[in-house]
């Protein structure tokens, strides 16, 4: 099997800060790769480089063996790179329906939503039901997006991203601000996405329990550099990793 995503010596600087330093790794379809490291290590920057929000200063990014280093973000989304953000991104003071119609990363899939919202009863119905079942979400399309509590908005953002049929899903700190149950639903969704849908998942998460539980392997970043790449068990006992985390207590 070929990797669905590959980073080759990717670098990114912000002034004097090296946020990504020669980062190389690959992600296989159906696998979950954890991205961990202290605050400011460059985790979110990497997701932004992969989704095309930032352009790297050096190195290359490949999606499905095609070089996408210079491909604009909306095209990458259309190609099948989905993502969610540390803080869910929705239109404020708008209905849930509008937020689905205007999903920023949905690109060409918009027609799909329009036809769905216009006439129910397609396969889409089943798929959508399944996603809502996994996340235990219930809502009315006309509800204001802000009527949903934070945790539900985060879950809904994952559902929205899943509906675009991504082949790679970038998930930035899904469990932050969620209660235990919602955290379980996130894990169920990630399992469904990877194991059942074959999506390659990149997961940034501070909850070590979640990371250890769900990731096939883990990349550890410190000051933009990959300091370890291994399976969860080996990462947990890696002295270099433990060292990098010393003194790290605060959350983003
Ligand atoms: P993490 O997600 O691991 O906490 P980030 O990727 O957000 O880390 O940030 C890595 C480093 O890059 C930090 O020092 C941060 O301040 C810096 N950085 C990130 N984005 C920008 C930006 N748009 N402009 C300037 N500096 C940035
Ligand atoms: Mg971050």
Structure at a glance:
37% of the residues lie in helices and 24% in strands. It has 252 residues and is an alpha/beta fold. It is globular and about 50 Å long.
Structure description:
By secondary structure, this protein is α/β, with parallel strands linked by helices. It is 37% helix and 24% strand. The strands form two sheets. A six-stranded mixed β-sheet has the order 6-7-8-3-9-10, with helices on both faces. It has a four-stranded antiparallel β-sheet with strand order 2-1-4-5, covered by helices on one side. About 2% of the residues have low confidence.
Which characteristics define this entry?
252 residues, alpha/beta, six-stranded mixed sheet, four-stranded antiparallel sheet, 10 strands, globular, binds adenosine-5'-diphosphate, binds magnesium ion
The biggest beta sheet, please? 6 strands, mixed
Question: What amount of the residues lies in strands?
Answer: 15-25%
State the low-pLDDT regions, or none.
104-108
Quaternary state of this entry equals single chain
The shape is globular
Number of strands: 10
Estimated radius of gyration: 18 Å
Describe the protein's topology.
Layout: E1 5-14, E2 17-27, E3 32-36, H1 43-51, E4 58-63, E5 66-67, H2 73-79, E6 81-84, H3 96-101, H4 110-118, H5 123-135, H6 150-163, E7 168-172, H7 180-196, E8 200-204, H8 208-214, E9 217-222, E10 225-230, H9 232-236, H10 239-245
Parallel strand pairs: 3-8, 3-9, 6-7, 7-8
Antiparallel strand pairs: 1-2, 1-4, 4-5, 9-10
Bound molecules: adenosine-5'-diphosphate and magnesium ion.
